[in-house]
Specification:
single chain; Spore Coat Polysaccharide Biosynthesis Protein SpsA, Chain A; 6 helices; 20% strand; nucleotidyltransferase; CMP-NeuNAc_synthase; PseF; Cytidylyl_trans; nucleotidyltransferase activity
Length: 231
């Protein structure tokens, strides 16, 4: 039963320049994903898929493999994560290396830990799932969401929920965009990251932060330091 961790990290980040190797506190942010994967001892191979020589060198420095650079067709803005994963799996298959399980860990996910990865794999096996990924519960029911109309007035998206108590509304969750742990053959054949036989690991607000802007980055560093201090 072979397992691979794939960390997709192309060089062309737009919103934060060189985001995947920008220092997060004291090391390049991609190092956190690599180290969590290695520390978990789950994987027979921890590799980084990149089109960028500098990212490749940093990845190797922190213990990942970069056996080849990503193809040009999967290095543009429209290439999907599943495209990148399929390319990696096919390249290893040509070398006679088949992986039963894959974990795609994003490079800007410093809150991922070895224990979260281990727990996710255990859930994947124990519950006979095809995929597991981390989610976070919305802090306020999305059924009470608001929108701004063309005349700059506010209204509810679902006004039928106006008189329903928030505690009586069903909880909703969102994908944290940190990683996906899955059965390789099933997800590749479905050509999507998760399917109807997918489970989840629920994390806390303090255990995650989406990083799209410099403000996000600074807040993520603050949360990370706080999390480490309370542990």
């Amino acid at each position: 039963m072979k397992k691979i961790a794939i960390i997709p990290a192309r060089g062309g980040s737009k919103r934060i320049l060189r985001k995947n190797i920008k220092f997060f506190i004291d090391k390049p942010i991609i190092a956190y994903s690599i180290e969590a994967a290695l520390k978990s001892n789950l994987f027979d191979e921890v590799m980084v898929s990149t089109d960028d020589d500098e990212i490749a060198k940093i990845a190797i420095k922190y213990g990942a493999k970069v056996p080849f650079l990503r193809s040009e067709i999967n290095s543009n803005d429209i290439a999907t994560t599943i495209d990148v994963i399929a390319e990696v799996i096919e390249a290893y298959k040509k070398e006679g290396r088949i992986f039963d399980y894959t974990c795609c860990i994003y490079p800007c996910a410093p809150f991922v830990t070895d224990q979260i990865l281990i727990s996710s794999f255990s859930k994947l096996e124990d519950d006979h799932l095809d995929c597991v990924f981390p989610v976070l519960k919305y802090g306020h029911p999305i059924q009470r969401a608001l929108k701004v109309k063309a005349n700059n007035r506010i209204e509810m998206i679902a006004p039928e929920n106006m008189q329903i108590r928030t505690q009586d509304l069903e909880a909703s969750y969102h994908d944290l965009g940190q990683f996906y742990m899955f059965k390789t053959e099933k997800i590749i054949s479905d050509n999507r990251l998760w399917n109807d036989n997918t489970g989840f690991i629920e994390l806390k607000e303090i255990e995650s932060h989406d990083i799209d802007t410099i403000e996000d980055w600074n807040l993520a560093e603050f949360k990370y330091k706080y999390l480490k201090n309370i542990k």
